[in-house]
Design a protein that fits this description.
- This protein is α+β, with helices and mostly antiparallel strands.
- It has 5 domains: 3-102, Rossmann fold; 104-129 and 203-330, D-amino Acid Aminotransferase, Chain A, domain 1, CATH 3.30.470; 131-200, Dna Ligase, domain 1; 340-444, 2-Layer Sandwich (D-amino Acid Aminotransferase, Chain A, domain 1); 468-497.
- Helix content is 36%, strand content 26%.
- It has helices at residues 10-22, 39-43, 62-71, 88-96, 106-113, 115-123, 140-150, 176-191, 248-264, 296-303, 307-315, 395-408, 418-426, 428-432, 439-443, 446-468, 487-497; strands at 3-6, 26-32, 46-51, 76-78, 100-101, 154-158, 168-170, 196-200, 206-214, 220-232, 235-241, 269-277, 283-289, 332-339, 341-342, 348-349, 356-358, 365-369, 384-392, 410-412, 469-476, 479-486.
Length: 501
């Protein structure tokens, strides 16, 4: 494999290209007109404008991407995450075109991309499941029957869904019919598939996922877990590895279950098996993501394994160079997603120019980003600016290092989630490990962050005043002391005495 096209943009495109360069592999970037000046475009060995800004006319145009691959004699396509990364039809077209798709087979994608077929496959290996419907539900009477068996509260979920779309929490039987209709409608609109299913709502859940890696020779290993319970709108904001609540025994059981899920679909490449863990530490299979995850860096930090390089090696037909017993956890890692969003306004996306953009540095700090100072945040794509990752000898050091890194991260021009992430990291519930996916509902209000921002602004103003002020020694009532005199006042006085304004 001598040349790889990265069918993505931003930080993940740049991250994949760096691993390719270390492996001596040439890279091709595709970009939309909105990303013409992005760093990943300049970093690639070759770059092709794929279309106008809307993703439907650029990054999601699979036929055009394959055409570029043929013209430039590309050997493989790395899809990153999002866009076409879990599109089985695209993967099949890539394969048919004689190009290597760096990811699982289209069949595995199809099986695990549908939550119902994924649950059916996992069930064959006796993997714990959340109680609920065995298949798709579209009949309200059937839904009510299952709801009575499952009990309340319960979840109605879109079979083809993700990101919280097509998901409804139902507290009582009287709400079921309306919520089912809403879930079906939303699922059709978002995914073109109105299939929904019902499952028991797990109280106080932790969202814990296990990274697996499989090769074409039948070997599958797990690279431990990631804690992903800090979420807004059912989407992750902070992740860490390993989880603070797993015992070695539970970690092994969950890891082996994840491997079995991989075996159920003959999985090849990097994938993630997601679980819910309840208050009693019972775990249940949730779904499988057949791609690289946004939060993969924390796994890389605690294992020392470059997952992108492993994806490429597997795609080339190589055997995994390590076995399960070779894998060890080294220290602790935390990742925060730096979104251009306003946490004080329901995390609504923010747009604007990065007037100041300075990333943190130092031991144990990693920044995966795709922006530079002076760039605009496009309105067409996900508002993530960067991923900030820290590593330490233990959880406490990783968290302390992250707080320091957040303070060192300078972004002016757009609102970001950095302040919110710092709030979480310093909260006693997070520090103690006693939290779940409802952290925001239980512990956060916009007013808390506004109050902290006001206090920090006041402190910053005092410091700035001291820096800007000039000290003058004076004698008051016989005592010698210092009085700060504003430089603005000094300059104004000097200009007036010189005849100026």
């Amino acid at each position: 494999m001598n040349k790889i096209l990265v069918a993505n943009r931003g930080e993940i495109a740049l991250r994949v290209m760096r691993s390719c360069r270390e492996m001596g592999i040439k890279t091709v970037a595709i970009y939309s007109e909105a990303d013409r000046n992005a760093p990943f475009v300049r970093y690639a060995d070759e770059a092709v404008c794929i279309g106008p800004p809307p993703s439907s006319a650029s990054y999601l145009d699979g036929d055009k991407i394959i055409k570029v691959c043929k013209e430039l004699k590309v050997d493989g396509i790395h899809p990153g995450y999002g866009f076409l990364s879990e599109n089985a039809q695209f993967a099949q077209k890539v394969k048919k075109a004689g190009i290597t798709f760096i990811g699982p087979s289209p069949e595995a994608m199809d099986m695990m991309g549908d939550k119902l077929s994924a649950k059916a496959a996992a069930k064959k290996y006796n993997i714990p499941m959340v109680p609920g419907s065995a298949g798709a539900i579209d009949d309200v009477a059937e839904g009510k029957r299952i709801a009575k068996e499952t009990g309340f509260p319960l979840l109605i979920k879109a079979s083809a869904g993700g990101g919280g779309k097509g998901m409804r929490i139902v507290e009582k039987i009287e709400e079921l019919e309306e919520q089912m209709k809403l879930a079906i409608s939303e699922a059709k609109s978002a995914f073109g598939d109105g299939s929904v299913f019902i499952e028991k709502y797990v109280s106080g859940p932790r969202h814990i996922e296990v990274q697996i890696l499989g090769d074409t020779h039948g070997n599958i290993v797990y690279l431990f877990e990631r804690e992903c319970s800090i979420q807004r709108r059912h989407q992750k904001v902070i992740e860490e590895a390993p989880s603070s609540i797993l015992t070695p025994e539970l970690r092994k059981r969950m890891g082996e279950c994840a491997v079995n899920v991989g075996k159920a679909c003959n999985y090849v490449g990097a994938g993630t098996v997601e679980f819910l863990v309840d208050e009693k530490r019972n775990f249940y299979f949730l779904e499988m993501n057949t791609r690289l995850q946004v939060e993969h860096p924390v796994t890389e930090m605690i294992t020392g394994i470059d997952l992108v390089k492993e994806q490429i090696k597997v795609a080339r037909g190589e055997k995994l160079s390590f076995k399960q017993e070779d894998l060890k956890i080294s220290g602790h890692s935390v990742e925060v997603r730096v979104y251009a969003e306003d946490p004080t306004n329901n995390f609504l996306p923010d747009i604007g120019k990065l007037l100041t953009y300075q990333v943190p540095k130092g031991p144990g700090v990693r920044v995966d980003d795709g922006f530079e100072e002076g760039m605009d945040i496009p309105i067409y794509y996900d508002p993530m600016i960067a991923k900030l990752i820290t590593h330490g000898k233990d959880r406490e050091e990783a968290i302390d290092r992250m707080v320091r890194a957040i303070d060192d991260y300078k972004i002016v021009g757009v609102e970001t989630t950095l302040g919110f992430c710092k709030f979480v990291l310093k909260h006693k519930a997070f520090v103690s490990g006693d939290f779940d996916t409802h952290f925001i509902n239980h512990h956060f209000t916009p007013e808390m962050l506004k109050h902290e921002n006001e206090e920090e602004a006041e402190i910053a103003a005092i410091i700035a005043a001291r820096i800007m002020g000039a000290e003058k020694v004076v004698k008051l009532n016989g005592n010698v002391g210092t009085v700060a005199i504003s430089k603005w006042r000094q300059n104004r006085s000097n200009s007036q005495s010189a005849g100026g304004y």
